[in-house]
UniProtKB/TrEMBL annotation:
Alphabetic keyword roster: Signal
Main location: other
Subcellular location: Cell envelope
Keyword Membrane listed: no
Name of protein: D-ribose-binding periplasmic protein
A GO molecular function held by the record: carbohydrate binding
GO CC annotations on file: cell envelope
PROSITE patterns: PROKAR_LIPOPROTEIN
Family membership noted in the UniProt record: Belongs to the bacterial solute-binding protein 2 family.
Gene giving rise to this polypeptide: rbsB
Pfam family, one: Peripla_BP_4
Species for this entry: Allorhodopirellula solitaria
Record carries keyword Signal: yes
Domain of life: Bacteria
Length: 321
């Protein structure tokens, strides 16, 4: 009878799903020893950010023993409330670090301050947070990314050299005006045109979007038929400008430049539809931020800004690859 009771007890324990005690404790120790890094980006509908995500995931797969990665993005680059909510969700989930490409240079600062107060390492990539707001919120967050002004000026300088004829006029399609990178790219374009003595006759924000850029560029071309070039603060807007120029029957007549070096623009450069763009190495930009965050987690970082590369991309540079 005792043997039967013993067998029943064992069966009951197995039925309740008991497991060897060594496995869960070992898994728990392994998981707790690896920091969790959250990557929060802007719109994953934009190839630049999907490329950024893939680069980060590839890096994590090659360093799986070093950290875990959580990738997030918003559907619309203007959806600031959703990006703020993502920061708060990552704080609540207990991540060790947040690497963020903020959709707005000012609006995300209070949420990131709260993340830092919760003991989370925060690294800013792509679009630099507003220094005045950081000071007002009494928080320091390192920026890991390119000099957007310098990158845009390289593109603008190359365009200026290509423009011919007497007194060429150009237009600018800006990004979201509250974003620091949009402001810096506009300033880079302006500096290049001013240096070359080329007037900017129209400058409007298409908020990084291709369809809006198409509409605005079409209006610009109609209102200013002598436009010789359109400088676009990102490649998605450059694609919109290409469509507008084609609809206006001015393909080959109006030069277009962009910023980001997405695949579609590389193809357009090869086809002569776009003159140049800037490559800020989107596949590595999040990786640079993640590596900086891991150093901070391990007490090896200094909390300083880190400037990353930005290079001019032309038909000539693409042909050398």
């Amino acid at each position: 009878m005792k043997n039967i009771l013993s067998l029943c007890l064992i069966a009951l324990l197995i039925g309740c799903g008991s497991k060897p005690t060594s496995s869960p404790s070992a898994d728990s120790d392994t998981a707790s020893s690896k920091p969790r890094v959250a990557l929060i980006m802007k719109s994953l509908a934009n190839e630049f950010f999907s490329t950024m995500a893939k680069g980060a995931q590839q890096h994590q797969s090659e360093h799986a023993d070093d950290y875990e990665l959580v990738v997030n993005g918003i559907k619309d680059e203007r959806d600031l409330s959703r990006q703020v909510a993502l920061v708060e969700e990552m704080v609540a989930s207990g991540v060790d670090a947040i690497v963020i490409a903020p959709a707005d240079s000012k609006a995300l600062v209070p949420a990131l301050r709260r993340a830092k107060q919760a003991g989370i390492v925060v690294v800013n990539i792509d679009n630099q947070l507003d220094q005045d707001v950081l000071e007002m919120e009494e928080v320091s967050i390192p920026f890991v990314g390119p000099d957007n002004l310098a990158g845009a000026k390289k593109v603008g300088d190359y365009l200026a050299e290509s423009l011919t004829g007497s007194s060429p006029q150009v237009a600018v399609l800006e990004g979201i005006r509250t974003s620091f990178n949009a402001q810096q790219r506009r300033k880079g374009f302006e500096a290049a045109m001013e240096e070359a003595g080329i007037p900017i006759i129209d400058s409007q924000s298409a908020e990084w979007e291709m369809s809006k850029a198409n509409t605005i560029a079409s209006s610009m071309l109609s209102e200013h038929p002598d436009i010789a070039a359109i400088l676009c603060a990102n490649d998605s807007m450059a694609l919109g400008a290409i469509a507008a120029v084609k609809s206006a029957g001015r393909s080959g007549d109006v030069q277009i430049v962009g910023f980001d070096n997405i695949t579609a623009i590389q193809n357009a450069i090869g086809e002569g539809k776009v003159l140049a763009t800037a490559d800020q190495h989107g596949d590595q930009l999040a990786v640079f931020g993640i590596e900086a965050a891991l150093k901070e987690i391990h007490g090896e970082g200094a909390g300083n800004d880190i400037e990353t590369p930005v290079d001019l991309v032309t038909a000539e540079s693409l042909s050398k690859k």
